[in-house]
């Protein structure tokens, strides 16, 4: 896929100020195709990705005068390969991992933070206030979940967690009594429970067990990767939490996902976070 970055070279029309390297006019972005309400494949146009991350990125880019194309690039691993290579410029929902610092520049703060909560059956006697309370209890976690590395190490050493192919399967194990709890994102868990008609059968603890960020990450091989771009995005994302746009985007896309599941068209894959 060809890079779609245009560069406006020249001087800013303010005395003494130069545009250091130029301004990127267009970014080609990708991400997870199956992680509602953050990102998922548009059933009306499968070449596009939609969701809360897409909406917020479009808002920030519009403010900066940059055009963004959010395109489907295959499953998560394929999307990452496209960005590593520079064929696409940016990931919209990158988890922060040390290994990828060799390939990506992460823009801070994260575009969104994904609270992972403890979900149980209604009437469960499980008592939870912090992660160590889960020791000795059987739980489930989708293999698509992207927790922080610190929590992953803790879980491996202290928790009994069954990895399932999807969040749907994890919640089904919970309702069947095969596990006592499920770890799932606040909004992905809500979207999955509602889409599957399970919302009235579950209860959730509001204290997050983990809180990984979903970062914008620019490829080292992108012609659009320059300090001006990263700095402007960082500034705009610092302003987002106080604007109310983040919560509005999440709620809007939960409803969007639910509405799509009720339509007769072939659905996109169920939430996998």
UniProtKB/TrEMBL annotation:
UniProt-listed Pfam families: SBP_bac_3 (PF00497)
Solute-binding protein family 3/N-terminal domain residues: 26-256
InterPro entries xref list: Solute-binding_3/MltF_N
Keywords of this entry: Signal
Superkingdom assignment: Bacteria
UniProt record similarity statement: Belongs to the bacterial solute-binding protein 3 family.
Protein name: ABC transporter substrate-binding protein
């Amino acid at each position: 896929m060809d890079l779609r970055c245009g560069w406006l070279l020249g001087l800013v029309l303010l005395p003494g100020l130069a545009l250091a390297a130029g301004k990127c006019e267009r970014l080609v972005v990708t991400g997870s195709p199956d992680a509602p309400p953050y990102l998922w494949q548009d059933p009306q146009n499968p070449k596009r990705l939609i969701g809360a991350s897409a909406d917020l990125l479009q808002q920030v880019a519009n403010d900066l005068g940059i055009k963004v194309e959010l395109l489907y690039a295959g499953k998560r691993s394929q999307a990452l390969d496209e960005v590593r290579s520079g064929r696409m410029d940016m990931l919209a929902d990158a988890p922060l991992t040390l290994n990828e610092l060799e390939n990506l520049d992460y823009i801070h703060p994260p575009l969104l933070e994904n609270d992972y909560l403890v979900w149980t059956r209604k009437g469960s006697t499980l008592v939870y206030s912090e992660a160590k309370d889960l020791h000795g209890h059987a739980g489930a976690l989708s293999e698509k979940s992207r927790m922080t590395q610190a929590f992953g190490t803790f879980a491996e050493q202290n928790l009994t967690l069954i990895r399932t192919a999807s969040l749907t399967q994890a919640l089904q194990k919970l309702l069947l009594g095969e596990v006592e709890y499920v770890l799932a994102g606040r909004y992905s868990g809500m979207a999955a429970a509602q889409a599957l008609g399970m919302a009235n059968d579950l209860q959730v603890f509001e204290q997050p067990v983990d809180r990984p960020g979903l970062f914008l990450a620019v490829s080292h091989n992108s012609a659009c990767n320059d300090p001006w771009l990263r700095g402007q995005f960082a500034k705009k994302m610092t302003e987002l939490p106080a604007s109310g746009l983040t919560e509005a985007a999440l709620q809007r896309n939960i409803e969007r996902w639910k509405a799509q599941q009720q339509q007769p068209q072939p659905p996109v894959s169920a939430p996998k976070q």
